[in-house]
Amino acid sequence: MHPQPPRRTTHAYGTPRNLLVYDRWGRFGRPVVLLHGLRYDRTMWWPLAAELGDGVSAVAVDLPGHGQSAARDDCGAGDLAHDLAMLVNSLDLRRAPILIAHAESARLAETFAERYVTHRVITVGCGDPESLDDVPELYRQFAVPRQNPDLLDGYREWLAEPLPRSTHLGAEHFPHLRDPAGFAALLLTMR
Q: InterPro entries given for it (predicted)?
């Protein structure tokens, strides 16, 4: 019996000035790019990505200044969409990705979709955070925002306008954490 490679692997893309750290699950199938909202990081997607299985290639990216990605003075959606496109291209995924955006990252997902081939944009949690009572205890750790007021300075552009309205799934703030298996099953019907 041969040892199996880890299901989730962590990688970095870019230079020290525009470094993006990301986790990846799977290497084949429809690419699914997971974008967290402001003050969160890529770990918020771990329960969902683990449920997606081998039929997709899931990529959860830390936005600049979040998690392990380098901070930037200006995080304009256009520049980040370009960096995200270069990252996706470097993965040699060969199919247009589904972008799943949490809260404010809907702006980045929509900008990406305007400029690059995209299979679908899905947004979740585009409202005020609700009580986490419906999120299983095991997953609540992934729904806690980091408190760093300086972080939002680079995202002024994102906060100045209302969020775009793309395909919105779930009335709850964290549908992917409330029921990761159910949310994954729904996504798999969209590929």
A: AB_hydrolase_1, AB_hydrolase_fold, AB_hydrolase_sf
